Amino acid sequence: MTTRSFGAPITRNEDARLLSGQALFVDDVELPGMLHAAFLRSNVAHARIRSIDVAVARARPGVIAVYTAADLGALWAPGPLLVPPPPIAGIVFNQRTQVPLAKDKVRHVGEPLAVVVAQSRYLAEDALADIAIDLEPLPAVVDLEKAGETDSARVHDDVRGNVAAHVRQFRGNYAAARARADHLIARRFCYDHGASSPIETRGIVASWDGRANQLTVWDTTQAPVFLRNGLAGMLGLSERQVRVIAPFVGGGFGPKIMLFYPEEVVLPWAAMTLNRPIKWIEDRLEHFFATSHERGQTHDAEIALSGDGMILGIKDVFLHDTGAYNPYGLTVPINSQCTLLGPYVVPHYDSTFTAVFTNKPIVTPYRGAGRQHGVFVIERLLDIAARELGIDRAEIRRRNFIPPDAFPYKNDIIYQDFTRLEYDSGDYEPILDKALAAIGYREFLAEEQPRLKAQGRHVGLGIACYVEGTGIGPYEGAKVQVQANGKVSVATGIGTQGQGHFTVFAQIAADQVGVDVRNVDVVTGDTDQFYWGAGTFASRGAVVAGNAVNEAAKVVRTKIIKLAAEHFECAEEDLEIGDGKVSVVGVPGKAVTLGELALKANPMRGAVRPGTEPGLESTQYFGPPSGATASGVHAMIIEIDPLTFMVQVLKYVVVHDCGTIINPLILSGQIHGGVAQGIGNAYYEQLVFDDDGQLLNASLADYLLPTALEVPRMEIVHTVTASPLNPLGIKGAGEAGAIPVGPLFAQAIEDALGLADRKIELNEIPLSPNRMFELTTKSR
Amino acid sequence: MIGRAVSTDSQSADRHDIAVIVNGLQYSRTVESRLLLSDFLRHDLLLAGTHVGCEHGVCGACTVIFDGVPVRSCLMLAAQADGHAIMTVEGLAADRNHLNPLQEAMRDCHGLQCGYCTPGILMTMTAFLDENPAPDEAQVREALSGNLCRCTGYQHIVDAVLLAAERLRSPSP
């Protein structure tokens, strides 16, 4: 039998191509006669457009075309709402989606006004300077609270108070819980999440083949199938006439799923209009304005507790910055609202948020997708409660955990996938215990910290818990097919941005079909290879597409065995599958390879009987009833310099549960990367806007991504509570690492500097050396 | 980027005839003064393994080895490469079935995810290991700190560089 590959730390099938410079990324696509596009973008956050004059640009040698909104005809329309608002009673939702090129008004810096198509990127960018624009500046809406004041400017003239949405969700009766509480804690928390900043910016190549009546678009998207469907509709084509290829994509982390970016509409249209292939590659400066962010929320939260630290209820009212448009609906604030509940029993919960339009780039999910914001609020509330009630901070968490026999655990409110939030499975206390043991909790607090503090060193510990709703529907599909050369092909509709899909899907199929994992070729993100699907988001690729691969591979296995039984004229039970062949048990040498069977399944003579199909292939779909809930605990020991406030992480532990593990090597990589982004969010990365809505640090020299010196070595402990919601028992893992790092930093820094004694609380993220100086100096 | 179709009819002022050796092969081309070395490698020579991440010299994805020294090809002009020798990621191994020890260690340690920053990291670390055959973790991290990776959290890259150094010191028979 072939060694089982599911669960093994197998190196990746895709790496040789990537390591030798042979993997195709969008900017590597070179086509004969290809033109290049550059976009003229607004340099102010809010203005009325008086006029745009492109005559000089059009006359520049090498320029093929210049388009503004007026040239787009029927193409010009606000984009679709990707995710409609969930069915929540009393919800207010004002849909205002972005347009291909701005007409009448610009609403954020970087909003495109015109596009130049020229013979080279250099010439296209030259011609941008030839375009004369006359803008009438308007006051910018920047601050979340001021946005709602009656005298505030309006991002959308017809939306009063800049209210994009207003949502209240509750369970139980918070007022009653509050009335019998022994202890109340109310605080304001500000949580700002930055830009995903993949090292590859966005890019598009669009090519119209008039002979074949076929549009091909290479795009750095996380959702090629939705892009294909939408483009067909906008361009008056059938879906079959549009092929979207998301080749190797250099990181995404959420913003590459936003649809439709203006460039994604304009490039294919211009390629058809000019009958020439056109490429556009976003530069890093554009990326800071033209690609979506996540950004900030302000929470006013209150927790009601019993004297022994049991949570009686939580009330939270928060503002959410949605930017200039809201094409992604309410996914981010709904995630914040739901994930605040964490791994704890919260009998009474009352949460209301207002999503606010601002003159800033669009907000859509970025790794964690609002979950960080909620986790920060609950974890900080528990830290403060522990201190005020004199309870150990690990102990107060333990007391409030949902017990293992309470699953599936209903939280009643509506989650981002529109189902009632329900945790499928989990066992939280062992995770906490493992984290405490791994970080050396007791020893550190009782011995090491006092010893080091006596030496004048400022060391502190943080510990934070989280849950993550992962692996949501609607569905994904996969086609598994045995090739005549004995290799197995797997195709699925999701795109890939480094998650290891070429390997983990191969592992799933390899075990079912009985081949080596190196003999499984996976194709992702090409709509001509697999027609249906949703995309790579919400930590769902492995869960949803992985189970679809498993289902399809199971059917192929059945077909292989059936055909082999006919071939050997024996019973199916007498056969075993493995090492790329089917063997008759107990008869050495009596075997047929999968390649031979694949040929046999597509006969030139002898009919395919009614009710059967040629080939050894199957296409299957998987849609989970609801999301699978992953969980974990992070613990960290830091040292901070009390003068410079530079933080050094001395030890970092992650204990997590994402259900059954497909590949522990790849899983560790996902967690490492998530933590690194969490560290950036907690202490280094902040999008700094001024009062005019200008982003002041739009370069990688000023927006500080963590380097190998800021990200510590991590110790990872995997635990497994299999999900009952899918046959493989998987939960998602992609986002988890990034989620609890904010509260971990706040708690550890407070601990290291003894801030509690100085009545200083760190109730905001990101922190930074500068901000620490301000916070600790003010109250000296 | 300037394709050659453009080079013939461009009205731009000054152009340069340059000859460079890339991965051991000699190339002679006429380029515009302003053409970036990164664009020249990627779009004129079609050596697209060198990636461009920021075009302002911070991310390190475009790093190539220029006369033996790692440089950022987005901060140089193609014209400056005239008469010089460059190695890119395509020059590290004969083909994808015969990776070099650093590339193999990157695969073995899962030192890459999306792979976009990887060529730059391979070139930086190739030059680093040439000078530091027995580095410790702190030295590797310091040397790596000029290359941004958004996927891996660096730990597996550090592991890979240390493993490659070890294997290069004591090659298996």
Give a description of the structure.
The complex is a heterodimer of chains A (780) and B (173). Chain A is of the alpha+beta class and 780 residues long. Helices cover 27% and strands 26% of the residues of chain A. The longest helix of chain A is centred in the last third of the chain and has 28 residues, at 541-568. Chain A is globular, with a radius of gyration of 28 Å. Chain B folds into two domains: 4-91, Ubiquitin-like (UB roll), CATH 3.10.20.30; 101-169, Orthogonal Bundle (DNA polymerase, domain 1). Chain B contains six helices and five strands. Chain B has helices at 4-9, 37-44, 101-108, 118-131, 137-144, 155-169; strands at 15-22, 25-32, 63-66, 69-72, 85-87. Chain B has a five-stranded mixed beta sheet, with helices on one face. The radius of gyration of chain B is 17 Å and the shape is globular. Residues 1-12 of chain B have low confidence and may be disordered. The chains are: A alpha+beta (780), B alpha+beta (173). At the A-B interface, helix 1, helix 3 and helix 17 of A face helix 1, helix 2, helix 3, helix 4 and helix 5 of B.
Helical amount of chain B: 25-40%
Specify the structural class of chain B: alpha+beta
Structure annotation, total helices of chain B: 6
Strand content of chain B: 15-25%
**Main β-sheet, spatial strand arrangement of chain B:** 2-1-5-3-4
> First CA to last CA of chain A: what distance?
70 Å
Q: What is the top-level CATH class of the largest domain in chain A?
A: Alpha Beta
What share of residues are in beta strands of chain A?
25-35%
**Which quaternary structure do these chains form?**
heterodimer
The total beta strand count of chain A reads 30
Which stretches of chain A of 5+ consecutive residues score pLDDT under 50? none
Determine the N-to-C terminus distance of chain B.
Answer: 46 Å
Main beta sheet of chain B: 5 strands, mixed
Strand order of the largest sheet of chain A: 3-6-1-13-10-11-12
